[in-house]
Amino acid sequence: MKTEAQIYMDFQKAKEQSSRLRQIASNLDNVADDEVQGAVTKIGADWTGENSDNYTGKAGNEKVKINTTAANVKKVADVIEAIAARIMQAELAAIRIASH
Fold this sequence. Notes:
single chain, about 100 residues, mainly alpha, Helix Hairpins
């Protein structure tokens, strides 16, 4: 059986991993919202015609996919943290029960 210290350390590690995932998701959002959107806007301003519209439309779709992926990564981080909290509570309860 784990000690309380090990349980809290495991929970802290899970929280750190969740935080790293949230940072990755934030970076993805920034790339989509700043870099991709900026490039699409510049291309749309500099290049006209049907091909430009097709390209910027497809690039806009990719931006949406990146934002959706970022949102999904954030959800995964939330789930990891929630599961880790539940595991920690269960393990602490097991220690309390075993000690009585």
